[in-house]
Specification:
The complex is a heterotrimer. Chain A is about 60% helix and about 5% strand. Chain A is of the alpha+beta class. Chain A has a 4-stranded mixed β-sheet with strand order 2-3-5-4. In chain A, a hairpin with a 3-residue loop joins strand 4 and strand 5 (about 115-120). In chain A, helix 1 crosses helix 7, helix 5 (about 130-145) crosses helix 8 and helix 7 packs antiparallel against helix 8. The longest helix of chain A is centred in the C-terminal third of the chain and has 37 residues, at about 175-210. In chain C, about 50% of the residues lie in helices and about 25% in strands. Chain C has helices at about 1-5, 10-40, 75-90, 95-115; strands at about 60-75, 90, 120-130, 145-155. Chain C has a 3-stranded antiparallel β-sheet with strand order 1-4-3. Classes of the chains: A alpha+beta, B alpha+beta, C alpha+beta.
Chain lengths: ~280, ~100, ~160
């Protein structure tokens, strides 16, 4: 049988698309899908948050509470009740039963959990210098409850991260990338929530004390201690302390709140060890 | 274009041959098929989605092989063989290879 | 600036490896294809066929089974493309060049072995592809492809 060698010019087994073009298309498509999903989930989370029955919310809060080593603090409880008494008579928060707990870590923070739970970290109790400052923090957390932020906070970023983890595996770089992206988006959203809670808390502080003294002191001290660059705050859940101070001062000027002397804090009773149950 | 996996085309004679021709394709499944297959894993039975996917891919590999044979000036491909292997997570490579010949 | 990089270390490493995979990978691929084209042109006169013996028994001097095999690995960039393809489905073009190179290289090595032994033709060629090692299908590793080409190299009697 005759053999005729025929050289081939075209390689049929290789597609002609450029790999970078393909990468761009697929990344674009992926970003689009994630965006649509994110928006849909965000809407769904908000709808659920509106309609969640109180019993379910308390259950969620109890589960979240298990993450912290908490103890009761009757002194803090008393301050909270005094603060609540300063609310306007028609405020929906009056009908709800708030509890406050102290977590035994040195972090300077406080969180609002579902089910009317406020967790204050011990580090914060040690860092506040006046009663006004402490009440500002509590009022800020009550502001979150007033805006129903406590459930929305659990929403989108978590769902997106969970989905990426199931699709790509727990420790893949894709999951890490999506997690950091969505959490930073959520950080902008929650920075708006934080600013709104700040404003609401300021109003409550003034209702309680009659003046706005001590509202910005805590953040001013924090910002002097904190040397993280502003860029880090892009991805943090709280705005930069200087931004918070600026917004608060602007609101104080708008509402023409007065400044008077603050009440120094006697922290011995506050930081006392809780009685053994 | 005759394609067969025996040595000759019945009723014709091979006049000249041009050597090996091969066609291959690598195909991946997408999330939708994956989910359906995951559900099917519970009850067992034929995974129609995957069957379709693989036979489409096999067709494409065959078409590529035929294109290469045509470019060589052949009008038949004899002794065709197929092979499947999994080269990546969720992707399978299918290829077909045979000898390009001219029959009369 | 350095602190931002340090905080996002895993992202930076990922981007770096992808870039490295793309540049080094395409350079290596082009070089390999040039070598393949050159050797295919040289060995074009030695046919490789899949049917059995086309020549009558008397004219065949010897027939020896020969093999050519190669293992080629993918780069990080191709792996990224394959992972994205897994979502959308369709042709994984980044792997196409990989298996194409591997197959052609294996057949070339078979031809070279046949030429060294002074054979005229390789008949009854079979190709086997596999992915070896535990790196094949696990999520975190880079894959590789092994191709084996084997056939019988026959030497014809000089008439």
């Amino acid at each position: 049988m005759k053999f005729t060698p025929r050289p081939l010019s075209e390689n049929v087994n290789v597609s002609k698309t450029h790999p970078l073009a393909e990468l761009a298309w697929m990344l674009g498509g992926l970003a689009l899908i994630l965006l649509v999903f994110y928006l849909l989930v965000g809407q769904a989370v908000e709808v659920v948050a509106e309609r969640l029955p109180a019993g379910a919310e308390r259950w969620l809060g109890r589960q979240a509470l298990k993450n912290f080593a908490v103890a009761e603090n009757p002194e803090l409880d008393r301050r909270l009740q005094t603060l609540l008494a300063a609310l306007p008579v028609d405020s929906p928060l009056r009908r709800r039963d708030f509890q406050v707990w102290v977590a035994a870590t040195d972090e300077i923070n406080a969180v609002a959990l579902p089910g009317e739970c406020i967790v204050v970290f011990r580090g914060l109790l040690e860092a506040v210098a006046s009663e006004n400052e402490l009440d500002m923090v509590l009022a800020h957390e009550l502001g979150h409850f007033a805006h129903r932020d406590q459930l929305k906070g659990l929403g989108r970023g978590l769902v997106a991260t969970f989905l990426t983890m199931t699709l790509f595996g727990n420790d893949s770089s894709a999951a890490g990338l999506v997690a950091s992206l969505t959490l930073s988006f959520d950080a902008r959203y929650s920075q708006r929530q934080e600013a709104a809670a700040d404003a609401w808390g300021l109003d409550l502080l003034v209702a309680r004390y009659g003046h706005a003294g001590g509202a910005v002191d805590f953040f001013a001290r924090l910002s002097r201690r904190d040397d993280a660059p502003r860029l880090a705050y892009l991805r943090a859940s709280h705005p930069h302390p200087e931004d918070r101070i600026r917004n608060l001062e602007r609101r104080i000027a708008e509402r023409q709140y007065r400044f008077e002397t603050v009440v120094p804090l006697d922290s011995t009773r506050l930081l006392a060890e809780p009685p053994r149950p | 274009m005759y394609v067969t996996n025996i040595e000759t085309i019945p009723g014709k004679t091979i006049v000249e041959h041009f050597g090996l021709v091969q066609g291959s394709t690598v195909r991946a499944k997408h999330i939708g098929r994956d989910l359906m297959a995951g559900l099917k894993n519970l009850v067992g039975g034929e995974l129609k989605g995957y069957t379709e996917l693989l036979s489409e891919s096999r067709d494409e590999a065959l078409q590529r092989m035929i294109r290469e044979a045509k470019a060589m000036g052949a009008n038949a491909v004899v002794n065709v063989r197929f092979a499947t292997s999994s080269v990546a997570q969720g992707a399978a490579e299918l290829f077909a290879y045979g000898t390009a010949v001219r029959v009369e | 600036m350095l602190r931002v990089l340090a905080q996002n270390a895993d992202l930076v490493i990922f981007l770096f490896l992808t870039g490295l995979g793309y540049t080094a990978g395409s350079i290596a691929e082009r070089r390999h294809y040039r070598s393949i084209s050159r050797r295919e042109a040289e060995l074009l006169h030695l046919p490789v066929v899949t049917f059995k013996n086309p020549y009558p028994e008397e004219s065949v001097r010897s027939g020896v089974m020969m093999m050519g095999s190669v293992v080629i690995s993918i780069d990080y960039f191709k792996r990224l493309l394959a992972i994205l393809r897994n979502i959308f489905g369709g042709r994984v073009t980044s792997y196409e060049t990989l298996v194409d190179r591997a197959r052609r290289e294996a057949v070339l090595r078979l031809k070279e072995a046949a030429r060294q032994k002074g054979c005229d033709m390789v008949v009854n060629l079979r190709l086997e592809t596999s992915t070896i090692g535990q790196s094949a299908n696990s999520r975190n590793s880079v894959g590789c492809v092994e191709v084996l080409a084997y056939g019988t190299a026959i030497a014809l009697r000089r008439l």
